[in-house]
């Protein structure tokens, strides 16, 4: 991780909306993103001409906007870094980062790569097919990952004659389902990604829909309260001690703020040692800051010389995380090899590495009914389960619903070094 971020990052993050798109195959994710980019004038004319030309060659009657994002996917599938999956665009009102990945992988991946900061999930539904298992699964995972806003886009309305009844039926079913989950904000928009209805421009084909277009919603949805600005959490990533003479007294702790607001002069406690000190400065590549908050990357210096290493956490004395080795969590399993009761795994939690043993598989979740399955505890690819683990050393953690960074961890198969599970601490 780079520690030399510029000081405006936090400011930019305040007006940055991160969202993911989900849906089953062919529901229209790529077309929708293409439409958003095109109608909001976020693509260059030459890009448009290229896909127009390509669509014409293939004999498509409409310009295939999906080609815009499919190009992006090709790059990614060639193994270029995961960041390529993210597409940036901006309107005068806000900046956006879209994470577009097929299937379920996007959510778990996002979380695993530490980018568990999506504010919003767009879940697409084909108006002809209605709610399918993937819709429920994506909703459940979005809720589990604590994504605060879910927008259901009922797509391909042009293929159901823009009928209000089709939309209402799907909406009703999903309202029932999502009300059983802990999602703060759920919206429904009838769209046609192909024809452009209600994506950026209001549809004339659906006068019965009085709500906002997708872009308007993305531009205006309130995200200020999505970050935890209360519990101060600074997991130390690196200790910085420059070798030059000029800097020989400098000792800084670099990392990314996981919660709360830090200011020079603040009394802080370093965990697990429990030593206390005051913040001397908060440094960035572009100079010192008067205050810093999640998710900024900064280097903190303290008044006192304390022995601090990677994996330690700087917090406020009166608001500390849990410390413990017995951890209850929900796990999304992401590997062909099944989760093993009594299995041992490496874990990564904030900037800390440890090992853990699975003590108990408490139950599995049936995504369709949301019921707990207690008689079949075999946890395989894509399963979600509640488990108990015991770590080899104490972790400094919060509940996931309190803090998405200090509340999450990943399980790694030590033999293959693959990430096999993403855990949310409960
Ligand atoms: N009629 C109609 N067709 C649409 C609409 N949106 C997408 N399609 C078509 O549905 C097909 C699938 O669209 P994509 O955008 O490629 O779907 P996707 O969800 O990205 O598909 P995968 O990436 O394969 O999961 C394409 O033929 C699109 O032209 C729509 O609103 N109306």
Automatic annotation (TrEMBL):
Pfam families: GTP-eEF1A_C, GTP_EFTU. GO terms for molecular function: ATP binding; GTP binding; GTPase activity; sulfate adenylyltransferase (ATP) activity. It is an enzyme of class 2 (transferase). Its EC number is 2.7.7.4. Coiled coil: none annotated. Residues 14-227 form the Tr-type G domain. GO terms for biological process: sulfur compound metabolic process. The keyword ATP-binding applies. Keywords: ATP-binding, GTP-binding, Nucleotide-binding, Nucleotidyltransferase, Transferase. It comes from the Bacteria. This is sulfate adenylyltransferase. The gene is cysN.
């Amino acid at each position: 991780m780079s520690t030399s971020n510029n000081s405006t990052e936090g400011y930019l993050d305040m007006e940055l909306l991160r969202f993911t798109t989900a849906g089953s195959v062919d529901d229209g994710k790529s077309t929708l993103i293409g439409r958003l980019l095109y109608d909001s004038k976020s693509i260059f004319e030459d890009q448009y001409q290229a896909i127009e030309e390509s669509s014409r060659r293939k004999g498509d009657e409409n310009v295939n906007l999906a080609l815009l994002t499919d190009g992006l996917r090709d790059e990614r599938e060639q193994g270029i870094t995961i960041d390529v999956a993210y597409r940036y665009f901006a309107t005068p009102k806000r900046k956006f980062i879209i994470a577009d990945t097929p299937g379920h992988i996007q959510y778990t991946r996002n979380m695993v790569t530490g980018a568990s900061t999506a504010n919003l999930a767009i879940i697409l539904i084909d108006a002809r097919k209605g709610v399918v298992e993937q819709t429920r699964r994506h909703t459940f995972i979005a809720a589990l990952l604590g994504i605060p806003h879910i927008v259901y886009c009922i797509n391909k309305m042009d293929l159901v004659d823009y009928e209000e009844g089709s939309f209402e039926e799907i909406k009703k079913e999903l309202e029932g389902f999502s009300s059983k989950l802990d999602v703060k904000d759920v919206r429904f928009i009838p769209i046609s990604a192909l024809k452009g209805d209600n994506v950026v421009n209001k549809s004339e084909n659906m006068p019965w829909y009085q709500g906002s277009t997708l872009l308007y919603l993305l531009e205006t949805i309130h995200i200020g309260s999505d970050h935890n600005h209360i519990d101060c959490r600074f997991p130390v990533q690196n200790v910085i001690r420059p070798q030059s003479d000029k800097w020989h007294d400098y000792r800084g702790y670099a990392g990314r703020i996981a919660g709360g607001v830090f200011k020079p002069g603040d009394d802080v406690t370093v965990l697990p040692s429990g030593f206390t000190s005051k913040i001397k400065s908060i440094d960035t590549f572009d100079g010192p800051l008067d205050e810093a908050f999640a998710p900024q990357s900064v280097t903190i210096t303290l008044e006192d010389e304390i022995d601090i290493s990677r994996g330690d956490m700087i917090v406020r004395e009166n608001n500390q995380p849990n410390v413990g080795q017995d951890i209850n969590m929900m796990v999304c399993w992401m590997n062909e090899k099944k989760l093993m009761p009594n299995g041992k795994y490496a874990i990564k939690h904030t900037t800390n590495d440890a090992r853990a043993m699975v003590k108990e598989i408490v139950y599995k979740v049936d995504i369709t009914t949301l019921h707990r399955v207690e008689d079949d505890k075999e946890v395989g690819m894509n399963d979600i389960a509640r488990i108990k683990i015991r770590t080899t050393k104490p972790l400094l953690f919060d509940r996931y619903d309190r803090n998405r960074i200090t509340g999450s961890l990943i399980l790694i198969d030590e033999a293959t070094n693959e990430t096999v599970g993403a855990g949310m601490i409960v």
